[in-house]
Inverse folding.
């Protein structure tokens, strides 16, 4: 019998969080809101996990509370920032 627990696979939100973690504009936004430098993709990904209370981006697609935190604290504010600085 296989007793290993399978982790949920990431969907669209996990992919979006992954893309943003690799964007220079996202790093700049993270640095701005936390008043500390963002030192690249790993730091940006850790920021997303901390804000959303998750261990893996995949949880964004399977945990309603994490999804709500992502939308409220990351997706909406970052979309406003992108619009303000002219990111497409």
């Amino acid at each position: 019998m296989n007793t290993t627990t399978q982790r949920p696979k990431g969907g669209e939100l996990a992919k979006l969080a992954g893309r943003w973690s690799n964007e220079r504009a996202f790093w700049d936004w993270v640095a701005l809101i936390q008043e500390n430098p963002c030192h690249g993709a790993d730091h940006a990904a850790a920021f997303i996990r901390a804000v959303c209370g998750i261990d893996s981006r995949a949880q964004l697609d399977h945990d309603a509370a994490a999804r709500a935190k992502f939308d409220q604290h990351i997706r909406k504010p970052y979309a406003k920032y992108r619009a303000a600085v002219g990111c497409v």
